[in-house]
Amino acid sequence: MADLWDEAKRALGEIATMAAKYDIDGVDIYFVNDRKQGIGLRQTADAVIALFDSIEPAGADSEIAGRLEEFLLPYLNRAEKYQQAVELGTAAHLPKVRPINFIVLTDGVPSDDPESVIVSAARRLDAQNFPLSQVGIQFVQLGDDPEATEVLQHLDDGLGRAYGIRDIVDWTLLPEGRLDASLLTKILLGGINRRVDGKAGH
């Protein structure tokens, strides 16, 4: 656990540094089992390292669905409100809702039900004909837990066919010691490109 935690800390610190060049908003970091967070981190890795060092990784529960829902629901509400305003010609006073991508770093099996949260979000996106790149969720599995692999691979490959929805999920398996900022960037961009190129379930 400690080695994987340190890998994530180093990689996300590098991502925050890169964000200064490519994203004026920076990077937001949240944890599944702790309410501490870092918002708009960029320019240096120091804030990311300090954030990670303030948290003690512990516990087997991984309530990924609950945390995803916390962020997806308000985002989708804003996106739908903005799109409706565009259609009515009243969007000038509203901030534009930019596409969003979640990178979920995990080493185990979710202890709740991310499938239902993802399916619900994809259905809302389909209903409003949002671009395929509007929302993306990249699961990055650290380590080689076979149960986690089975669950995450299903979220990646099985939901589009099972529910007739767009595919907003990608999954990457990384052996321990492989995680770094350049690889995270490739994973993120690869997921966006696959969705835009038609890797959709409808």
What can you see in these coordinates?
With 202 residues, this protein is of the alpha/beta class. The chain folds into two domains: 1-59, no CATH class; 63-202, no CATH class. Helix content is 50%, strand content 15%. The protein has helices spanning 2-22, 46-53, 64-88, 114-127, 146-157, 159-163, 181-196; strands at 27-30, 37-41, 100-106, 135-142, 169-174. The strands form two sheets. A three-stranded parallel β-sheet has the order 3-4-5, with helices on both faces. Helix 1 crosses helix 7. The termini are far apart. InterPro entries: vWFA_dom_sf (IPR036465). This is VWFA domain-containing protein.
Brief digest:
This protein has 202 residues and is an alpha/beta fold. Helices cover 50% and strands 15% of the residues. The protein is built from 7 helices and 5 strands; from the N terminus they run αββααβαβααβα.
Gross morphology is globular
Radius of gyration, in angstroms, nearest whole number: 17 Å
Biggest sheet record: 3 strands, parallel
Q: In angstroms, what separates the terminal alpha carbons? A: 38 Å
Question: Largest sheet, order of strands side by side?
Answer: 3-4-5
The whole-number mean of residue pLDDT values reads 85
> Strand portion, in percent?
5-15%
User: How many structural domains are formed by the residues?
Assistant: 2
DSSP helix fraction: 40-55%
| Helix segment tally | 7
Total strands: 5
Low-confidence stretches: none
Decide which structural class fits the backbone.
alpha/beta
The H-and-E topology, N to C, reads as: HEEHHEHEHHEH
